[in-house]
Amino acid sequence: MKGEKHDVSAAYTYLNKAENFYEQIDFKEKKLANILANKARIDEYLQNWNNAIDAFSELLETGKNLKSMNTIADAGVHLVRIHIKKSASLVEWLQLIKKLGFYGIMALLKVLFQQKQRLF
């Protein structure tokens, strides 16, 4: 699996169609956030680090605007995983901490605490 190039064009096509549909309805913010998260996950899977970081950063801001701790935590966890996978520099880590802010760090701590409780 690693090193293989997978055709994800069908996934992108589906997500683009869903995005166009959701643009036309009320209460679209959460649905559009889900689409953004899925596109970001595809970029992370394909190791398109810059695209994935940009998309998850946008998702993080969307989560903050929606006051959704789950969205903030999801974006934060993926951003941390990406930084680990790409062996980010100290400067990149500091930028991530600044980007996460108080709510992002609190959401990450909550996720880590929940994971710890599941393991023990």
Order of helices and strands: HHHHH
**Total tally of structural domains:** 1
Mean pLDDT: 87
Overall spatial form = globular
Distance between the termini: 32 Å
The major β-sheet equals: none
Low-confidence stretches: none
Using the CA coordinates, give the radius of gyration: 15 Å
Got a strand count? 0
Helix content estimate: over 70%
Q: How many DSSP helices?
A: 5
Percentage beta strand = under 5%
Structural class: mainly alpha
InterPro entries: TPR-like_helical_dom_sf
Description:
InterPro entries: TPR-like_helical_dom_sf (IPR011990). There is one protein chain. With 120 residues, this protein is an all-alpha fold. It has one domain. It contains five helices and no strands. It has helices at 9-22, 29-45, 49-66, 69-85, 90-119. α1 runs antiparallel to α2 (29-45), α2 packs parallel to α4 (69-85) and α3 (49-66) runs antiparallel to α4 (69-85). The longest helix has 30 residues, at 90-119.
Q: Can you tag this structure with a few keywords?
A:
0% strand, single chain, 5 helices, 120 residues, TPR-like_helical_dom_sf, mainly alpha
Question: Care to give the gist of this entry?
Answer:
The protein is mainly α and 120 residues long. It is 80% helix and 0% strand.
Give the SSE map.
Layout: H1 9-22, H2 29-45, H3 49-66, H4 69-85, H5 90-119
